[in-house]
């Protein structure tokens, strides 16, 4: 293991990778939507051997007091032991909570969903949108895969029919899409040795010293940031991370548009 890490670090110092990809090159990305029949929306994303599935469920509830005329969005993540020997059974671990928080922030801060259009009756009833993220196989770069799966699931989700007089939800009748406005895409930039890389596999991730997740939306604006790792990034490296994230985010967004 130590020899492997030294080998990967040595390659990174020469701006090279063990699978011969370029520094800003992702592994193959595949997006499949409508993979869970009972969900309002769902998507499976594969980035190389990393595999994530996201499902959207909806229900009617009470809006938050500080946002009485808006819908509610809640995102959770589960790291199943079948995805990695490092994942354990039980309540969501810190890594799962952090991943869900980063994905949630990117979607929420981008204004991806028109939350006001989800309000049924101000202060009393609103649509609640739940996104559940499940890691099927951990082979590196989980945040980007989870973020992409979540937004793909939301973009293809259809709302159940609500009978306001009876106060009932008909999950058999789904015609109207969620009121989506933007397609936020998270891109995580990782530092190995003194170089910046995108989409590390699991072996590369083990030797990274710091990461920066940059979420951008359709107009190229940065809507959320999340730093990982104990090391620091220089101003020049942060600017380079922004540049890489904007470029790759636009490319992945075009890929996403083919599936919605």
Describe this structure in words.
The chain has 260 residues and is of the alpha+beta class. The chain has a single domain, classed as GHMP Kinase, N-terminal domain (Ribosomal Protein S5, domain 2). Helix content is 27%, strand content 35%. The N and C termini lie far apart (42 Å).
Shape: elongated
Quickly count the helices: 5
Strand count: 12
Tell me the CATH architecture: 2-Layer Sandwich
Percentage of β-strand residues: 25-35%
CATH topology: Ribosomal Protein S5, domain 2
* Helical residues, percent: 25-40%
CATH class: Alpha Beta
Q: Rg to the nearest angstrom?
A: 19 Å
The end-to-end distance, rounded to whole angstroms, is 42 Å
What is the H/E string?
HEEEEHEEHEEEEHEEH
**Domains counted in the coordinates: how many?**
1
Mean pLDDT: 91
Structural category is alpha+beta
């Amino acid at each position: 293991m130590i020899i492997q890490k030294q080998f990967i670090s040595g390659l990174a110092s020469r701006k090279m990778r063990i699978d011969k990809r370029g520094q800003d090159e992702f592994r193959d990305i595949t997006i499949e939507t409508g993979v869970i029949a009972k969900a309002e929306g769902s998507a499976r994303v594969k980035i190389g051997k990393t595999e994530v599935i996201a499902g959207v469920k909806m229900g009617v509830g009470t809006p938050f007091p500080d946002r009485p005329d808006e819908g509610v969005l809640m995102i959770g993540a589960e790291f199943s032991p079948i995805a990695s020997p490092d994942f354990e059974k039980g309540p969501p671990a810190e890594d799962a909570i952090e991943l869900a928080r980063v994905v949630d922030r990117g979607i929420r801060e981008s204004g991806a969903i028109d939350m006001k259009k989800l309000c049924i009756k101000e202060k009393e009833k609103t649509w609640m949108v739940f996104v559940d993220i499940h890691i099927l196989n951990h082979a590196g770069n989980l945040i980007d895969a989870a973020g992409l799966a979540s937004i793909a699931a939301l973009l293809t989700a259809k709302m159940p029919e609500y009978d306001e007089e009876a106060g009932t939800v008909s999950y058999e009748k789904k015609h109207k899409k969620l009121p989506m406005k933007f397609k936020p895409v998270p891109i995580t930039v990782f530092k190995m040795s003194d170089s910046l890389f995108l989409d590390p596999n699991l072996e590369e991730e083990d030797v990274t010293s710091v990461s920066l997740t940059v979420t951008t939306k359709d107009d190229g604006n940065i809507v959320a940031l999340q730093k990982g790792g104990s090391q620091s990034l220089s101003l020049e490296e942060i600017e380079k991370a922004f540049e890489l994230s904007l470029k790759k985010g636009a490319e992945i967004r075009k890929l996403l548009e083919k599936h919605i």
